[in-house]
Specification:
alpha+beta; Double Stranded RNA Binding Domain; four-stranded antiparallel beta sheet; two-stranded antiparallel sheet; 6 strands; Pep_chain_release_fac_I_sf; peptidyl-tRNA hydrolase activity; translation release factor activity; hydrolase
């Protein structure tokens, strides 16, 4: 279990389902930027994964539809100079995206009306502010 990527609670992504790709990254790095493969691309196939229960999987597929490429979620990280740091950043980003995608919708807001006292206080404050601003005018 420690080999899995924790998402939320008991939900984890098996590391065997993660596909890594490395390439040279642009940006800072000095002479080493031309020799090290520090850019990381992390790919997780949501559609074929068994890591999520069917309900959460369907929710994730719906919410991540705009980010999926052939059913796979692709995360790219190249901010750091070291590959290991970029790998960790990509894992954190993947876990956060999946966590946000599987969280249930908040309960619907029950519309309410402001109380009569709240309406009266708001109108009284408006009148007071109008009078204060009118007194500042120079005619």
């Amino acid at each position: 279990m420690s080999d899995d990527l924790p998402v939320r609670g008991s939900i984890t992504i098996p590391r065997a389902e993660l596909r890594w790709r490395f390439s040279r990254s642009g940006g800072p790095g000095g002479q080493g930027v031309n020799t090290t493969d520090s850019k990381v691309e992390l790919r997780w196939n949501v559609a074929e994964s068994d890591a999520l229960p069917p309900v959460l999987k369907e929710r994730a597929l719906t919410r991540l539809a705009g980010r999926l490429v052939d059913g796979a979620l692709v995360i790219t990280a190249s901010e750091q100079r070291h590959q290991l740091q970029n790998r960790k950043a990509a894992e954190i980003r993947l876990a956060a995206l999946v966590r946000d995608a599987i969280t249930p919708d908040p309960p619907a807001r029950r519309p309410t009306r402001p109380s009569r006292g709240a309406v009266e206080r708001r109108l009284e404050n408006k009148r007071h502010r109008t009078l204060k601003l009118q007194n500042r005018r120079v005619d």
